[in-house]
From TrEMBL, chain A:
InterPro entries: Cytochrome_b-558, SQR/QFR_C/D. The lineage of its organism: Bacteria, Bacillati, Actinomycetota, Actinomycetes, Kitasatosporales. The chain crosses the membrane at residues 27-45, 75-98, 119-140, 167-188, 208-233. This is Succinate dehydrogenase / fumarate reductase cytochrome b subunit. Keywords: Membrane, Transmembrane, Transmembrane helix.
From TrEMBL, chain B:
The keyword Ubl conjugation does not apply. Residues 149-179 form the 4Fe-4S ferredoxin-type domain. One of its GO terms (molecular function) is succinate dehydrogenase (quinone) activity. Residues 1-102 form the 2Fe-2S ferredoxin-type domain. Keywords: Iron, Iron-sulfur, Metal-binding, Oxidoreductase. Its EC number is 1.3.5.1, 1.3.5.4. This is Succinate dehydrogenase / fumarate reductase iron-sulfur subunit. It comes from Streptomyces avidinii. Belongs to the succinate dehydrogenase/fumarate reductase iron-sulfur protein family. Its cofactor is [2Fe-2S] cluster; [3Fe-4S] cluster. InterPro entries: 2Fe-2S_ferredoxin-like_sf, 2Fe-2S_ferredoxin-type, 2Fe2S_fd_BS, 4Fe4S_Fe-S-bd, 4Fe4S_Fe_S_CS, Beta-grasp_dom_sf, Helical_ferredxn, SDH/FRD_Iron-Sulfur.
From TrEMBL, chain C:
SUPFAM superfamilies: FAD/NAD(P)-binding domain, Succinate dehydrogenase/fumarate reductase flavoprotein C-terminal domain, Succinate dehydrogenase/fumarate reductase flavoprotein, catalytic domain. This is Succinate dehydrogenase / fumarate reductase flavoprotein subunit. NCBIfam families: PRK07573.1, sdhA_Bsu. The keyword Oxidoreductase applies. It comes from the Bacteria.
Length: 234, 248, 659
């Protein structure tokens, strides 16, 4: 009698994850958390600017010698960069594919429009695009120094001051950090749900944590241009 | 009460649709929303027009047939089913927009009626416990902790109406799917199929063309039975666990 | 009326009938009642498992009975073709049952047993059910709970993890298993999930949104059905080795009832027209605890679970026309009439008694609420005794539902309730094997007449539906299929099949062609109000005769003035409705006739002429100790009555006493 209704053949784990909306979301969650961890460290490093050019530039130099003598010069940095690139690509590709699926799932829109969900939730997609563009500019500005007006290789302190001495530099940066705060606010909580950490009991804690992280990152990053603009750092 | 209704009219699955305006008068605030539509339809029939098609059956809020988006809200402004929504939730002179569930996986059949067969197919993919009739052990052979039984019940309350999909900006069926996965996976009886169930149901859900979850929470807000949002997280956990362990 | 054969006229009116040969169940084995089911299963022929795939069984309906039967037959290896008019099998009206399901598990050690459940059911049914069937039902009740738990039905549990039970109207033991106020939903989803598994396995071919409109009978044997695809309007015939009707009850003939809007009598009635006898159509159950109606717009009535009577106290003011708010009526001026009249059962008397008592106090002018059509169901004492939280845990969802509908908070103001049509004990006549008088046609669940006699006890409908679907039919249908292997195949070209298809098309075409000036609902409402007035909670010869005079007039007017917009070849809900009313207009007539001929009171059937001096129902066993199976003779033509004598070997008929 034909009682079995399931097949035993299953695709590989990677295939299962990548082919599934839930799997792809978990790829987004993990890559997002990787980037979030990096951002916390990055933000703390940035705060060194308040202790003067020597300390800041020294820190930048140390980053290049990290792991030595075991690792060659800048190898640690490159490992981090490759990891981050992988995270960004995984995050963006998943996001793109999931968004396409989401849009296809509602081909006809409602005639009666009404505001749905919170601002942070609604701006995840555009916020993500803004952040992606910002990263490009940020790398061209302070890593490759391509667009930095007073580019001075090996002197990040001075380069940062240069960026934040222009109105557009400040604007781009602050807008992007606001987008980051919103993105982290919903993204962190969402990632926790996707990875199954959410429950009715933990919901408040997770929301508090998400808001806290968003606020701390925003405040930490934005404190630098604000300090430059107000002359606290010069 | 006198109301203006703007109702989605569409003759058939492939026909074009539009919002049509109707005036209804003499509406009592004790009427349910569907009884108000009955009144409209009685008028339309007598005027020789085609009455508005809508799904409904028990009118007690349990069968899950009724499915209207009212002023942009699935099942309207109260947290209940359309059949249990009463006209006292509206004011005299209101204009009310009535639309069908909108989702690629719920194609319109006619007017406000949609095809929710995709939900049935998700259940067919694994939303059951394999227990052929006659094979059951004595009911008290396995005690189920009350907390687990209550958790199962809370999720088993889903009526399969599809409001979660209708409300979700992505047309996602995660809340529906998670309700059944959680109901069955928490029970000792459901545990042998725990991994295959969640993997197969999620795969089916994706195949049906539902969107993904972006945790907007709209589904849980619209759910007339109060299936909670953390239900989705619980299913994600089950899914990841199943991927890690592999189906037994 | 007592001897209709003497009342010869040239054109016999419907109110006349002739009495034909008695009908008898030939399937229940002799011997001790407790052994009969075992013996029947042993004596029944079986179909070789390898051959089952070659047998097709049509199941109409996907409620508790149909869903369970479809799943189980498919598990056994039969090819099942199943139909439901809803968009999904999960929406069948079994889903709305709130209270619970009885089972003689005796988990409470309170003196329950299979025999006690059997006894309670026969007595509750006022001695109008067949003993063999009821005993089997009681035996199977325990297996149902096991089956449902194995399927994952989340019944209420105690802190120790074991199943909780509660008591229900008409019994003194706690044997009702429940899942908050949604037991029917949970049991139905269990059956639906089992069915879904079989659909996925390819063993069940499911036709949703497809309604049976006729039965195909070939050479006196049921061989298929004619169905309409409700989306495209396409009429098609489906053929099988046996047909199972699990299409529910016919309470919607009353227009206002607790049935779902789409529940209807078409499947059973058209089977009746094709030769299946219809038994005890006048046995309808009026449920005592429904929310009173508010106005003419009302499309249906909502039931509040009978379990509320466990903790709620029913009362009305002692004085007539007392319009004070409930809270302003002091204790000594309240009449807790059920507790007063029936001190040992109090608020837990059977449904028919509670309903009639409510009608009586309202008729006396002591009813409460708009129109005086209501009585109070008061939880003030329960809240004082158990605390608000405990009451909320037990009845929270019911209280919410009440408040949503009435905008009154039952924690503060007593609920108002009034009886409403709820369940129909009558249905297609079936033997012990659940086979109708038409070979190859089976009827299960509420669609048949068995088990509940003249009144159904609370929490017994779910039990019967599942017993029939999971356990009885899958055993007994083997015997039929094994003994009647169909070697010939039937198709649309067969004269009898072609006739059924043509008649179905003609009926729909006729409905569309009238193009009159009255809507289907207006006729439904008219026939419903007539039935409630004359064939409702209390019936009299005079009233029933009035109804029998009026029904043919309504029917004539229907065919002259009905207006059905649209076409037949499309999704057309007005056409669906009108087509169902065609059957109500005939069924109503048979219900009235059955009520008229049964000049006794029993269970849900209360004849004003037959009552004890203190107003209780007076049964007349000598004359009416039978089930009345009616044979169709044509629309408006006098039907033939076949009596099935009921023999009581184990439970001896007594006048029911709940005092």
């Amino acid at each position: 009698m034909a009682l079995a209704t399931r097949t035993d053949r299953r695709p590989s784990t990677t295939r299962t994850i990548w082919d599934s909306s839930v799997g792809k979301k978990s790829v987004m969650a993990v890559s997002g958390l990787v980037m979030l961890g990096y951002l916390v460290v990055h933000m703390l490093g940035n705060l060194k600017i308040f202790f003067g050019a020597d300390e800041f530039n020294g820190y930048a130099h140390w980053l290049r010698t990290l792991g030595s003598p075991f690792l060659h010069h800048e190898w640690a940095l490159w490992i981090v960069r490759v990891g981050l690139l992988a995270a960004v690509v995984a995050h963006a590709v998943s996001a793109y594919q999931l968004s396409r699926r989401d849009i296809r799932a509602r081909p006809v829109k409602y005639a009666h429009k009404r505001r749905r969900a919170s601002y942070a939730t609604r701006t995840m997609r555009w916020g993500g695009v803004i952040l992606g563009l910002f990263i490009v500019w940020h790398l061209l500005d302070l890593t490759t120094l391509t667009v930095n007006e007073r580019a001075w290789a090996g002197h990040p302190y001075e380069n940062v001051l240069s960026t934040f001495s222009t109105w557009y530099g400040n604007t781009i940066y602050i807008v992007a950090m606001a987008a980051l705060g919103l993105h982290v606010r919903h993204g962190f909580w969402s990632a926790a749900q996707t990875l199954g950490a959410g429950s009715a009991r933990r919901d408040r804690t997770l929301k508090f944590l998400a808001n806290g992280l968003a606020l701390v990152l925003f405040a930490g990053f934005v404190s630098v241009p604000v300090a430059v603009m107000t002359g606290v750092v010069n | 009460m006198k109301l203006t209704l703007r109702v989605w009219r569409q003759r058939g699955a492939d026909a074009p649709g539009h919002m049509a305006s109707y005036e209804v008068d003499g509406i009592s605030e004790d009427m349910s929303f569907l009884e108000m539509l009955d009144t409209l339809n009685e008028d339309l029939i007598l005027r020789g027009e085609d009455p508005v098609a809508f799904d409904h059956d028990c009118r007690e809020g349990i069968c899950g047939a009724c499915s209207l988006v009212i002023n942009g809200d699935a099942h309207g402004p109260e947290r209940t089913t359309t059949c249990q929504l009463h006209m006292r939730s509206f004011d005299d002179g209101d204009t009310i927009d009535v639309e069908p569930w909108r989702a690629a996986a719920f194609p319109v059949v006619k007017d406000l009626v949609v095809d929710r067969g995709s939900f049935d197919r998700i259940i067919q993919a694994g939303g059951y416990i394999t227990a052929p009739t006659g094979a059951a052990p004595e009911a008290h052979a396995t005690a189920v902790p009350k907390a687990d039984a209550d958790f199962a019940f809370e999720h088993a309350e889903c009526i399969g109406c599809g409001a979660c999909v209708a409300a979700c900006p992505n047309g996602s069926a995660m809340l529906f799917t998670s309700a059944k996965v959680n109901h069955l996976n928490v029970l000792p009886q459901g545990s042998p199929e725990r991994e295959t169930r969640v993997l197969d149901m999620v795969a089916r859900m994706d195949e049906e063309g539902f969107g993904g979850c972006t945790l907007t929470g709209e589904c849980a807000t619209a759910c007339p039975k109060g299936i909670p949002l953390p239900s989705i997280a619980a299913m994600n956990k089950e899914w990841l666990r199943a991927v890690r362990k592999g189906p037994r | 009326m007592s001897d209709p054969q003497h009342d010869h006229r040239r054109h016999p009116a419907f109110a006349d009938y002739t009495t034909g040969e008695p009908v008898a169940d030939t399937k229940a084995p002799e011997g001790p009642i407790a052994d009969r089911w075992d013996r029947r299963r042993f004596e029944a022929k079986l179909v070789n498992p390898a051959n089952r795939r070659k047998h097709t069984v049509i199941v109409v309906g996907t409620g508790l009975a149909g869903g369970a039967a479809g799943a189980t037959l498919a598990e056994q290896g039969y090819h099942v073709v199943q139909f439901c008019f809803s968009d999904s099998p999960r929406r069948a009206h079994s889903i709305a049952a709130q209270g619970g399901i009885n089972a003689a598990k005796n988990y409470r050690n309170d003196g329950d047993s299979v025999h006690r459940l059997f006894y309670d059911t026969v007595k509750g049914g006022d001695f109008r059910a067949r003993e063999s069937n009821v005993h089997r039902l009681a035996q199977i009740s325990v297996e149902i709970i096991d089956q449902c738990v194995a399927q994952g039905v989340p019944f209420a549990r105690e802190y120790g993890g074991l199943l909780d039970t509660r008591s229900f109207g008409g019994v003194q033991v706690s044997r009702t298993f429940y899942a908050r106020g949604q037991t029917g939903q949970q049991l139905l989803l269990g059956a639906y999930q089992a069915l879904s598994r079989q659909i996925a396995a390819g063993n069940v071919e499911m036709h949703a949104r497809t309604e049976m409109l006729d039965l195909i009978v070939v050479d006196g044997v049921a061989r298929g059905i004619v169905a309409r695809d409700l989306i495209t309007g396409e009429i098609s015939a489906h053929y099988a080795d046996a047909v199972v009707l699990a299409s529910g009850g016919y309470g919607n003939v009353f227009y206002l009832s607790t049935n779902a809007m789409n529940s209807n009598a078409t499947a059973v009635w058209r089977a009746h027209r094709r030769g299946a006898h219809f038994a005890n159509p006048c046995f309808t159950q009026i449920h005592p605890t429904c929310i009173p109606r508010t106005g003419d717009h009302q499309s249906k009535l909502t039931l509040m679970s009978e379990s509320l009577r466990n903790d709620g106290r029913i009362w009305v003011p002692k004085a007539k026309g007392d319009t004070r708010a409930a809270a302003d009526i002091p204790e000594p001026e309240r009449d807790y009439y059920l507790e007063r009249i029936y001190p040992s059962f109090g608020n837990l008397v059977p449904r028919d008694i509670a309903s009639r008592a409510a009608k009586n106090v309202c008729d006396e002018g002591r009813g409460v609420g708009p129109g005086g059509q209501g009585v109070y169901l008061d939880f003030a004492d329960a809240i004082r005794r158990m605390g608000r939280d405990k009451v909320a845990e037990k009845y929270g969802n019911l209280f919410e539902m009440y408040e949503r509908i009435t905008a009154e908070n039952p924690y503060e103001v007593p609920m108002r309730i009034y009886p409403a049509v709820h369940y129909t004990m009558g249905g297609l006549w079936v033997d012990y094997d659940l086979q109708t008088t038409l070979p190859g046609l089976f009827a299960i669940g509420e669609a048949n007449f068995s088990d509940h006699g003249a009144n159904r006890l609370g929490a017994s409908a779910l039990m019967q539906g599942l017993a029939d679907g999971y356990f009885v039919l899958p055993s007994t249908i083997n015997d039929y299929l094994a003994r009647h292997p169909h070697r010939d195949t039937v198709d649309d070209s067969h004269p009898e099949a072609a006739a059924a298809i043509r008649e179905t098309r003609d009926c729909l075409a006729k409905l569309l062609a009238v193009d009159g000036d009255r809507t289907p609902d207006s006729f439904h409402r008219e026939i419903g109000e007539l039935m409630w007035e004359y064939c409702g909670m209390a019936r009299s010869e005079e009233g029933l005769r009035k109804a029998l005079d009026r029904i043919p007039e309504i029917r004539e007017e229907f065919w002259r003035r009905i207006k059905v917009p649209g076409r037949g070849e499309e999704f057309n809900q007005s056409l669906e409705k009108a087509n169902r009313i065609v059957d109500y207009l005939e069924l109503a007539e048979l219900m009235c006739l059955d009520a008229l001929h049964r000049a006794e009171s029993c269970g849900g059937h209360f004849r004003e002429e037959s009552q004890t001096p203190d107003g209780e129902a007076a049964r007349r066993d000598e004359e009416f100790g039978y089930a009345a199976a009616w044979e169709y003779q044509g629309t408006g033509a006098a039907p033939v009555l076949h009596k099935e004598d009921l023999v009581f070997e184990y439970v001896h008929p007594t006048q029911r006493s709940y005092a």
